[in-house]
Write a structure and sequence with these properties.
mainly beta
């Protein structure tokens, strides 16, 4: 069984920071971890991804320079440090794991967490 559990979401004012965590358990056999987000009425969109060997990093243009993805191999945990948050960052953030060829492609991930709400007030 595979389980991904996100934490760290919450309410923050514009310009503030938040760090999300995703702890993975079970045999994921994954080569990459990613963060996606979904706002009400919108499709789930790519935010950031990282390969477990650390050699591949990807960010959506909308978060480049503001968000940083990282991982702790010993803890099987991936993080998303979010700085300079904007109201448009408000969404449910989902952690994903898998062996995608294209790390920014949602449909190529196999496992998903339940999501954590991030709300940025103006």
């Amino acid at each position: 069984q595979v389980q991904l559990v996100e934490s760290g979401g919450g309410l923050v004012q514009a310009g503030g920071s938040l760090r999300l965590s995703c702890a993975a358990s079970g045999r994921t056999f994954s080569s990459a971890m990613g963060w996606f987000r979904q706002a009400p009425g919108k499709e789930r969109e790519f935010v950031a991804a990282i390969s477990w060997n650390g050699g591949r990093l990807y960010y959506a243009d909308s978060v480049k320079g503001r968000f940083t993805i990282s991982l702790d191999n010993a803890k099987n945990t991936v993080y998303l440090q979010m700085n300079s948050l904007k109201p448009e960052d408000t969404a449910v953030y989902y952690c994903a794991a898998g062996a995608p060829r294209r790390l920014w492609t949602r449909r190529e991930y196999d496992y998903w967490g339940q999501g954590t709400q991030v709300t940025v007030s103006s």
